[in-house]
Design goal:
Distance between the termini of chain B: 41 Å
Distance between the termini of chain A: 37 Å
Helix content of chain B: under 10%
Largest interface: A-B, 27 and 25 residues
Radius of gyration of chain A: 14 Å
Order of helices and strands of chain B: EEEEEEEEEEEE
Number of helices of chain B: 0
Oligomer: heterodimer
Strand content of chain B: over 45%
Strand content of chain A: over 45%
Number of strands of chain A: 11
Shape of chain B: globular
Chain lengths: ~120, ~120
């Protein structure tokens, strides 16, 4: 079974631009979460989607948004990029069909550099 | 509010020696606890979880973790360390209601295993 796939792996953008990152979850997983990882702040939760609905949201400005499609694939968008948005963005999927399947499986991440 | 603390930024151990990476948590209600490992420029790999049951949880690659409710700890252990275990380790707790995939992570502990 294929793992969580994130594209692109690396991205360089200029301040003020916007960016869209993509995540394809493990087949059958309908829960998709996004995290931002930086050296200073560590791993921070951005948002979670389940069945095309945002179920949870972290403490990030409105420039950060996301969505989920009917096939469970998810995208996150960052508008008006700032230098501080440079980070590794991680996507994770979870299988909620079995109650005890609480662990999340992560993709390789997208390394975003804002210059 | 849920939180996780990893008191050591780095743990150094000689190959073949036992290792312990410490984690303490603060949650309301029953904790769902996880350990993940991250290799350079990679996503997070799931190692093990505690949901309920035995306090000693066995996971991938020979790792285990001991849940201690009275000390609110969930330390990661391995009887005999390998050089290839050198990586960044994260402890996490499931945040919010049971109907969420949100994870709250500790700051991470770098494990260095020397030959």
């Amino acid at each position: 079974k294929a793992g969580v796939t994130q594209t692109p792996r690396y991205l360089i953008k200029t301040r003020g631009q916007q960016v869209t990152l993509s995540c394809s979850p493990i087949s059958g997983h309908r829960s998709v979460s996004w995290y931002q990882q930086t050296p200073g702040q560590g791993l921070q939760f951005l948002f979670e989607y389940f069945s095309e609905t945002q179920r949870n949201k972290g403490n990030f400005p409105g420039r950060f948004s996301g969505r989920q499609f009917s096939n469970s694939r998810s995208e996150m968008n960052v508008s008006t990029l700032e230098l501080g948005d440079s980070a590794l963005y991680l996507c994770a999927s979870r299988d909620e069909r079995v109650l005890m399947n609480t662990e999340a499986f992560f993709g390789q991440g997208t390394r975003l550099t804002v210059v | 509010a849920q939180s996780v603390a990893q008191p050591e930024d780095q743990v150094n151990v000689a190959e073949g020696n036992p290792l312990t990476v410490k984690c303490t948590y603060s949650v309301s209600g029953n904790p769902y606890l996880f350990w993940y490992v991250q290799y350079p420029n990679r996503g997070l790999q799931f190692l093990l979880k505690y949901i309920t049951g035995d306090n000693l949880v066995k996971g991938s690659y020979g790792f285990e973790a001991e849940f201690n409710k009275s000390q609110t700890s969930f330390h990661l252990k391995k009887p005999s360390a390998l050089v290839s275990d050198s990586a960044l380790y994260f402890c996490a707790v499931k945040g919010g209601s049971s109907n969420t995939g949100k994870l709250i992570f500790g700051q991470g502990t770098t494990l260095q295993v020397k030959p």
